[in-house]
Amino acid sequence: MTSLSLTGVRGGVGVSALLAAIGHALERLGERVLLVDLCPENMLRLHFNVDASHTGGWARAMLEGQDWFEQAWSLTPTLHLLPYGTVSAAQSDALEQRLRNEPSLWARRQKSLNAHYDWILFDVPQRLPGHAILGPCLLPIQVIEADAACQILLHQQARDSLLLVNRFDPGSQLQRDLLLLWRNHHATRILPLAIHLDEAMREALAYKQPLGQYAPDSLAAQDVLSLATWCLTRRRGERS
Amino acid sequence: MAAIPTALQIKAQGLSRNEQADDIARLKIELNLPNLDYVDISAQLELTRAVQRWPFLSEFGFAAEPADAPPLPIAGAVRQGKFGTST
User: Fold this and answer.
1) What is A94-160 written as a DSSP string?
2) In CATH, which superfamily holds the domain spanning A2-231?
3) Which chain B residues are within 8 Å of A156, Cβ to Cβ?
4) Nearest-CA distance from B16 to chain A in Å?
5) ipTM over cut 0.90
6) Which residue from A6, A161, A213, A220 puts its CA 20 to 30 A from A25's CA?
């Protein structure tokens, strides 16, 4: 079992849509995938046509003293989704404290899921450090857009996670320049491929489907498929 | 019918994937000059131009080369002063 996490360097860079698309692509490549939503906004489920009125999830189950692993949805036999659950702001704050006090929680859970999945993909919030504590994660990825705000934030932080450029528009001089500089300056961190700007990515959520299902021939879906293949290659490299 | 590999292709099998994709690395091997100090000037120039094009970069991670750098296409920094005074 291999873990991958996506988190935005700032808000609104399209993390949940990307995670849904990667999960779908990995499953298409024959992998057994579990998607875990660690964000209190509880949006990931909406990419898979889960009814908005459904309030269950691992966080809600923890708060109510129920079993977290019974909250997962089986979208296909090999693609499963564990929503966060609908909770109030006060409740997610309380949970944040609990997660900070128990930093080994997800490591234990990952271990218990080890035999059932090839991949566990985490949708990680930016500003809740307790929620972001995971067990071993081969591919911790920060999602960025090629804009000034992301460069400023990257410059201000001291992290060494991988970097993935989303919504790349090759027609923009600024974006081409930033990608060139990042490929030079963050050569060991930045992924060899970027996800192109594509309206299909936005439409996919409006259609409540992951990108690869909604628009399999779109440019972004092809990029995500390449990304999924790259993930498999990285895992193979780690094993050998 | 399969094509017979040429001499160059056979040699390429010994190279890493990066080297296969890197013309310069291949040239160094072909010329037996592994220590050749090659500088990709056009790539360097592109990087310099990219840094010069966007003023914010000088403050956030990409200080421009001080040597004969052309002035940035903006006016000097706004001076702090009391609102409504001429200073």
Assistant:
1) HHHHHHHH-TTHHHHHHHHHTTT-SEEEEE--SS-TTTT--S--SEEEEEE-SSHHHHHHHHH----
2) P-loop containing nucleotide triphosphate hydrolases (3.40.50.300)
3) 60
4) 14
5) no
6) A161
